[in-house]
Amino acid sequence: MSLLDDPKAAFADLSRPEGWVLGVSVAFVLFLFVAMLTGALGPTYFLFLVGLAGMYALLSFGLNAQWGFTGLINFSVAAFFGIGAYGTALMTASGSPIAGGFSPLVGLAVALVVALALALLIGIPTLRLRADYLAIASLGLAEVVRLIVLNERWLTNGSAGLRGIPGFFDGWPVLSTFPEAMPGLRLEVIPGSPVILETAFWQASLNVLLVLAFAGAAYFVLRRAHRSPWGRVLRTIRSDEDLARALGKNTYSFKMQSFVLGSLIMALAGVFYAHLNLYVGPGDLDPITTFYAWVAVILGGSGSNRGALFGGIVIVTIREGTRFLNDVALPIDPAPLRLLLIGVVIVAVMRYRPQGVLPPQRELIWPSAVGGGGTPETPDSGVRERKGGGDDE
Amino acid sequence: MSEGALPKEDAVLRVDDLQKSFGGLAATDHATFAVERGTITGLIGPNGAGKSTLFNLISGFYEPDGGTVEVNGTDVTGMEPYQVAEHGLIRTFQTPRKLEGMTVREAMLVGPRKQPGESFLNLFTSPGAVDESESANLAEAERILEEFEIDHLATQPATDISGGQMKLVELARAMLAEPEVLLLDEPVAGVNPTLAKKLKTQIRRLNEQGTTFLLIEHDMEFVMDLADPIVVLDQGHVLTEGTPDEVRNDERVIEAYLGGGA
């Protein structure tokens, strides 16, 4: 049911939590917009935040494809993120100790290939075993990758990190000169506090464009995969792998595909990050990234793509929003509160809504098969009311 | 006549000298028998006789220490469960497996083998073929649910139905995989008598339509009524095989069940 075809029905079709999330999101966007117009929030910084949110959304998409779909426990999100970031940085950065100076497109390709190789390397020995082995191995892998990046100076520049990474669109026709070519704009909505849009702003909007392209593509692929027979096998494996095997599914192959897909999406987040930050260092591989991605997926609702998107945005809001708490006079330093706040949120969600804020609700059958010749007498809205009703309590 | 020595011209499943031990315990001890095409073959035996182990060996979940398993004349010994399934042997489990977050018809759709939509690439390169097979499978799933008289459950969450209904759904789903031989592990354990009767009717009907069954069951009345022939397993080997009447009156079977042993 598309929003454009029948807006009223589309809204009526929302479950209560969906309505809540929609309402809060709209209010939040309005709030940010007002903050921007009044000059309280720099527009360039705002776009940077959108970029970060897109990056976390990508990480949670990737983890969702592994954990949410198939139940694979991957504790090396940070490693695949780091591989993506270092992969493109080593190819493109002027300060790269090995190659350097290539087009970011080459960087993207190399990052994905290396991430693929790493995913296969860790998947081949562990995916045949029980689920826990992947968890243990990936935990180790994350640390191994981080230590290699930190210590193999000839390859990665060690703790100094890599500088001089170009923007993703450098060297592209039109887009590479776009930020400079755009005129500086001065908007004065409220007298006395002008909003100035300059080169940095246009640069940041290019980054947003890039992350929207990455995240949009990932979302499109995952959404289609999730409601396909392919996704159904993955969900069967998550519930009961033996059942899938007994029904003739090559579960090892399916798990490998899911693992590789998720890892590539995580690497994509890393590629974006390198071209956003223009510097990568071993600190970017700290396990905290893995932790954030897990929180985002569990918060949003394991197995739900839009939940992963929501979770990613919430993480960035908490991470960056707490910075503004500095402006408010508090008796204690708010920075350490950030992790506490995330902890409180996750405990609250687990206590009151263990399935996450936006769990997958719709029956996942290839859409045209349900709508078309298959079963016209059972509209999918009826299904979801029944399911959604059970979820709400 | 012992060791499952009935003459079988057209065996869809042939188990020959199968062995498996766990530590010092021979759970399957040179078991030999065959399942003739078109029959409902019962597999009975006292607790610990090795029935479930035998199922796991046949369906590829365990690797045998020795002996062979043939499905449709193909040696499937040591193959992965999914490969055994590809040769036409499908099994169910003793405790119904729950598929969280799926509706009943969704859970049914896991059944069909070789769906085009199970290839990740096809989802993007040939969505038309995916759509076609998904529509056909969905229609088929609903038809089978109707035959099982549980079509009213189609859009219920698969985890919210009763244990007996789960058994029915499991059987219905297994049929979507179009098995040549279907192994049922205690199909009526924990099922109320009405549903058990329903299951019996369904199994008989499916058998008449050409599916061969091999079933483990503790409910003697159920299995004696439904299955012919019956294979009796004791301490990992085939004690005897025969019609329900023959088995019922066999001294050795009675002794095995009463725990004679001495």
Automatic annotation (TrEMBL), chain A:
Compositional bias (Basic and acidic residues): 382-393
Protein localization: Cell membrane
GO molecular function, a single term: branched-chain amino acid transmembrane transporter activity
PANTHER family recorded: HIGH-AFFINITY BRANCHED-CHAIN AMINO ACID TRANSPORT PROTEIN BRAE, HIGH-AFFINITY BRANCHED-CHAIN AMINO ACID TRANSPORT SYSTEM PERMEASE
Signal peptide annotation: none
Membrane topology reported for the UniProt record: Multi-pass membrane protein
Transmembrane helix in keyword set: yes
Recorded GO CC terms: plasma membrane
Pfam families referenced in this protein's UniProt entry, alphabetically: BPD_transp_2
Keyword Membrane carried by entry: yes
Region feature (Disordered): 368-393
Principal location: membrane
Keywords assigned: Cell membrane, Membrane, Transmembrane, Transmembrane helix
TM regions (residue ranges): 20-39, 45-65, 72-93, 105-124, 131-149, 200-222, 259-279, 291-316
UniProt protein name: Inner-membrane translocator
